Amino acid sequence: MTGDGRPVEEFTAELLAREVFGPLGGVVETGAVNATGTWRLADVSLGDFLDGRGAEVDVLLAGVRSACAFDSTTMSIAWDLGWLRPHDVTAASLLLWSGGLTGVPAELESPAVVRHMCQVGADLQLTRLLHASVTAAVTARTEAKRGARALAAVLTAACALSGGPRPSDVLRLWRVARLVHVLRPGSDASDAGRSAFRAYEHVLTATFGD
Prior knowledge:
Elements: H1 8-21, H2 24-36, H3 46-51, H4 54-68, H5 72-75, H6 77-80, H7 91-97, H8 111-139, H9 144-162, H10 167-183, H11 191-208
Helix pairs in contact: 1-8, 2-8, 2-9, 4-9, 7-8, 8-9, 8-10, 8-11, 9-11, 10-11
């Protein structure tokens, strides 16, 4: 049991889900800005953006649930975080999603800076989403072929939402930014964990190509 009386399994699932659904905020916010084509924050309507992309959101959530074995309570975290409800998109949030790469220029809301933050933010948050999803699927011991196929659908939908990189681009970013650290000899991953991550990478590569 955890300190608040919940089973460890429930607590772990909640943490994993927050890791998965946290980057979703960056995906939808950068996507809503990219969809304007002007990169002016005054032109952004996250409500309109989400209204027109229900199919992608449904595919993403269904794939996460299938691969990560989240129950209904755990899946509700996606809504509780607020990213899938209408809200304002600010330059400060885009700066956060992009990891502060641009610094804080005087013209933070200028279209050129906003566009750059969206490009970096989409790359970063999609890579985080993929890593968190694979980690949750491996933790759930979902069979790699089935899990990776579900996550391929998740990644395809997330890339479409972001208006940013292709799934194959995100897969490459994930390999060099995240996967290599899991697979290095000194990592905390068990041999079984490393084998599972390799299996997921193999199926994702077969799906999206090198």
